[in-house]
Amino acid sequence: MLAMSLERSMADHIAADLADIGRLHMPFGKFGPEHFPPHGVPIYDLPAEYLQWFSQRGWPRGELGRLLKIVHQMKVDGSDAAFDPFRQAAGGKRSLRPPKRRDWPLAPD
Predict the structure, then answer these.
(1) Which tens digits make up the pLDDT trace of 56-86?
(2) Which residues lie below 8 Å from residue 51, measured CB to CB, with a gap of 6+?
(3) Which of 75, 27, 32, 23 shows the shortest CA–CA distance to 51?
(4) DSSP calls for 3-33
(5) pLDDT above 80 for 101
(6) Rounded to the nearest 5 degrees, what angle is found at the Cα of 97, between the Cα atoms of 36 and 77?
């Protein structure tokens, strides 16, 4: 009985963490709202290399750091597909590259 209760409690915590990850956008830095308006990049779409930088230099404090650690570990473990429902609900994965130029000037004759 206690094992089932602990298992249910763990599942509730995991579900709550995933829901928080689905709502949170990067609030600062290279992938924050200044470079990706209006909210920044969703933390589940941050590149693994960017998260690796935090793992080497230090995670942000508080809830953001805890959730970034979870996202990093899931990406390292190959569980990135767990974020696909969030991406689908948001209309697809956010492009992190600047848009390509489409209007090239014509060369003079």
Answers:
(1) 999 999 999 999 999 999 999 999 999 999 9
(2) 68, 71, 72, 75
(3) 75
(4) HHHHHHHHHHHHHHHHHHHHH-B--SGGGST
(5) no
(6) 90
